[in-house]
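Example 4.3 (complexes with small molecules)
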Amino acid sequence: MPEFVAGLPKAELHLHIEGSLTPARAYAIAKRNGLDLDAFDPEKGAAARREFTSLVPFLIEYGKCSGVMRKEADFYDMMYDYLERAAENGVVHAEIFFDPQTHCYTDILEFKTVITGLTKALEEGRKTLGVDGKLILCFLRDRSVEEALQVLEDARPYMEVKSPVYTPDLLGVGMDNAELGFRPGRFKPAYDKARHAREAGLHCVAHAGEEGDASYITEALDDLKIERVDHGVRCLEDPAVVERLVKAQTPLTVCPCSNHRLQVYPRFFCGENAVRQLLSRGVKVTVNSDDPAYFFMGNVSAAGRACDASAYDGFLASNYVRTLALNSFDASFISEDDKKAHK
Ligand code: ADE
Ligand code: ZN
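Answer. The structure with adenine bound is encoded below.
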């Protein structure tokens, strides 16, 4: 099964580049930046990633490790590492989240350093590895809307076709970080601005329904007009929300290993194996890694294995992973012609 799944071309639609930073790479970057090495000892780092009770303790560790970044080369190396892992796993197209507010707005780093390092690695990854990577800029939902608007302002030169630093790689905006209590509707001004930012407009997605209940999903769809829901598994607690997602065929980017490691399933009522439940209800589900250096990379393979134990709902494991791979392109922001080519 793992070889079959790795050989299947697929798109990754929910991947935080900061969550792909391994303890070994964090240590190497800390060393070249002259930081306190004890704080980034790889063995301690790996141990700290072994157990999380929920999203926030994970985000604290994630924030600490992301704090090693200083230079363009750091962002280049982090991205190129991920693209190599993606190529090994049969990922041919990736829409990759990055969190400018995790790195900038503290006088340590400029937006330019972040985006230049990331886009240079994407260019090399396309040439050398055959992985087509694009970027989705995420707002931190537990920070102010004013700061989110400032991030968009900083990103503006990179989205203007006539600008000397224009990049076609900046594809959309998203929203991540601690969800409970940080409702999506607050960010309506930032999403309204983003939708008209690039000439072709930025695509809009948001994390909703990971730890927040199904009403966070409804609010993100209504107020932010998102095209895709990141996680969204708690829709299973409200049949009306599931029906809405099915009717509009709004894709969900589910991350089963992340949900498992952050204990989403036992703490809420959406039940085990959300992917299987959602597929059988007709939701357009995709399966993704979220933060592979903290959780696991081969999520499609893991979902297939979970299914393999007994053939659920008439899906054989191989059909199941084929459906997930096809959905990953269908739910992506590639052109309709490119989608047809992957059918
Ligand atoms: N940032 C990185 N991983 C995340 C997740 N699973 N939920 C919200 N924000 C995140
Ligand atoms: Zn995520």
